[in-house]
Amino acid sequence: MLKKYRNKILTLLALVTLGIVLQISGLLEPEKIITAARQYSDQWWLWLLLVIAQIILFTFALAGSMFLWVAAALFSPLSGSFVLATGAALGGVTAYVFSQRLTDEWIHKIENSKAYSLLRKNDNFFMLLALRIMPAFPHSVINYSSGILKVNLSAFVVASFVGVGLKSYVFITVIQQAASSGSFYDLLDFWVLAPLVITSLVLFSGVLIVNRKINKL
To answer: pLDDT by residue (tens digit) across 64-86?
Structure first.
């Protein structure tokens, strides 16, 4: 019995240890990352390093979205959204694969999530895109749910890249505008989030309507 769960137990211990080390060291603080990255802002490999860092964090369900602030501080909206979309898509794939090594407790938690319930019934590109675009929806839950359900990997990757790219472009633009005006209250404005929320809801509705018509046939 112990041998059966040995790998999963070791994986869980490794995740806990990694999280504690990163938290204590302060390496997950955006300010420190931005300060360090600005020293190499003229280097071509900086964006690649940021993508790799996102892949690692997304794989282990850590705070990869903090790189939104890093991208907003270092890149234009278009370049920043490309870096974030690439990191999220590739990190999503590694998390998708890694989900097969989750402990039973983690799998049970994922199966009780809203994302899992939605994808179990509608595991298609448009549902994946709707989840990616929706503000504040946890990417780790989407990644692990998709891996456990073995949703179509091509649709998963494209939806991840497009959804995160669109959302990142909007947020980076607003963050940079707020920084230049000296007021970050704009980030709390409903109309900043409204286009993303509306787009996501339209996609949700479209998927549900299509499914109802198919079920009636």
So the answer is: 667 888 888 889 999 999 999 99
151 by Cβ neighbours in 10 Å (0-12 / 13-18 / 19+) ranks as: buried
Report whether pLDDT(89) > 70.
Answer: yes
Angle at alpha carbon of residue 21, lines to 19 and 24, rounded to 5°: 105
**Residues 6 or more apart in contact with residue 124 via CB below 8 angstroms:** 152, 155, 207
Helix (H/G/I), strand (E/B), else coil: 1: coil
Q: Tell me the three state secondary structure of residue 80.
A: helix
The two three-digit tokens of residue 66, written as one number: 């903090």
- The DSSP call for residue 122 is -
User: Is residue 83 within 8 Å of 50, Cβ to Cβ?
Assistant: yes
| Backbone angle region of 152, left / alpha / beta, with phi > 0 → left and psi within -120 to 50 → alpha | beta
Structure tokens at 187: 């980030």
- The pLDDT, as a whole number, for residue 154 is 95
Q: Confirm if 87 and 64 have CB atoms less than 8 A apart.
A: yes
Q: Please give the distance of CA 69 from its chain centroid, rounded to a whole number.
A: 14
Q: Give 161-191 pLDDT, tens digit per residue.
A: 999 999 999 989 888 887 776 555 555 566 6
Chain centroid, CA 163 distance in Å: 10
What are the b/e assignments for 42-62, b being 16+ CB within 10 Å? eeeebbeebbebbbebbbbbb
Q: What residue numbers bound the domain in which 68 lies? A: 2-216
Query: How many domains are there within the chain?
Result: 1
